[in-house]
Amino acid sequence: MKVSKEIKIALLGIVAIVMFIFGYNYLKGSDLFSSTKTVKALYDQVQGLTPANYVQLQGLNIGTVKTISMSKQYPGKVEVEMTVDKDVFIPEDSKARIVSLDLLGTKAITVIKGSSTTNIKDKQLLNGDMELGAIESLSAAALPAVDGAKQTIHSLDQTIQSVNQIIDVNTQQHLKSTIANLDKTMADFTQFANELNAQRTKISSLLNNLNAFTDNLNKNNTTINSMLKNAEQTTAKLSKLDLENTVAELKTTLNGLQTTLDKVNNGQGSLALLMNDDKLYKNLKNTLSTANNLLYDINARPSRYINVNIFGKKQKDTCPPQPAPNSND
After folding, report:
1. What pLDDT, in 10s, does the model give residues 51-73?
2. pLDDT at site 162
3. Cα distance between residue 118 and residue 295, in whole Å
4. pTM of this prediction?
């Protein structure tokens, strides 16, 4: 059967239309021969996201952005519709975050997996999220600094104006005097530091002696503790003594001795007479001297006093007794 030229042209036109539709959808990111499902996400702004941008999960492309439009159901929100592979498991509590793929600002949506075990259904909403790009991050970081700098400059300007109003001629003179006094104080402090530096050797020696003393204390800690313990025991023993009665007895004894001394001083008693009566003292001295002479004479001439004569008559010694040597001292 011969096909007419008109039919050939019609078939060629149909093929061309199909290829055009396929190519258009391919450029939009849709694959007519793959099994996909549609998911949505809402954003306050999309920052340059366009249809056909990639949808990624853990760095892999799992779909594309299909449409971007203002949401009719949620006024003020931008609704992004995405087509993703049906075979990819996406937890329903996942986030669809808009990110920058490069420094040029090419956008994409990356799915941040949640912890749910339920797979997202067709036409279901994901939580929209936004990641700042490099330029946006720098801008966001720079804006507070710029605002702070403006505020600082304004405050500095006001401070300078206030200072100019406050500082008159007299104030300037006072400031100069204060600075001069401050210079003198710093000079005195420098001199003191130099003197202190000169005494560094003595200070070091003193610190060394102090350290040595501390070391000795540490080494003799046991001995010191023993001494303190002995002192404590001695104090305890002294506290147990009846010091009050002992002092009372000593006071009584001293009173008795004082009474005896008073009697001696007043001439009462034999001891007082012996100490105070010169005549009695001389008589006693003479008596002792005579007794001493007698004993000396008996020792020198015993025959004068003891004479035993059996056959003859007793010879009488008429010589006087001999005084003892130094009998007059």
Report:
1. 989 999 988 999 899 999 998 88
2. 72
3. 148
4. 0.36
Confidence of residue 41 (pLDDT cuts 50, 70, 90): very high
Integer-rounded Cα Rg, in Å, for the chain is: 67
- Sign of torsion over alpha carbons 86, 90, 92, 98: negative
DSSP conformation letters of 263-325: HHHTT-SHHHHHHH-HHHHHHHHHHHHHHHHHHHHHHH-GGGT----SSSPPPPP-SPPPPPT
- Tokens for 162, please give them: 């206030």
39: confidence class by pLDDT, cuts 50, 70, 90: very high
Per-residue tokens: 94: 């996942």
Residue 313 has pLDDT above 60, yes or no: no
Q: For residue 295, give Cα distances in angstroms to 1, 283, 287, 316, 319.
A: 200, 18, 12, 19, 16
Mean pLDDT, the chain, integer: 79
- Cβ–Cβ under 8 Å, residues 48 and 104: no
Q: 26 CB contacts (<8 Å, ≥6 apart)?
A: 32
Burial class (CB in 10 A: 0-12, 13-18, 19+), 106: middle
Note the Cα 195 to chain centre separation in Å: 32
The more confident residue out of 107 and 261 is 107
- State the distance between the two ends of the chain, measured CA to CA, in whole angstroms: 196
How many C-beta atoms surround the C-beta of residue 190 within 10 A?
A: 10
- The residues that bridge with 61 in the sheet, in sequence order, are 56
The DSSP H or E segment spanning 6 is helix 5-28
- Written as one letter, the residue type at 247 is V
Is the distance from CB of 40 to CB of 109 less than 8 angstroms?
no
pLDDT for 88-131, tens place per residue? 899 999 999 999 887 777 899 999 999 999 998 888 898 888 87
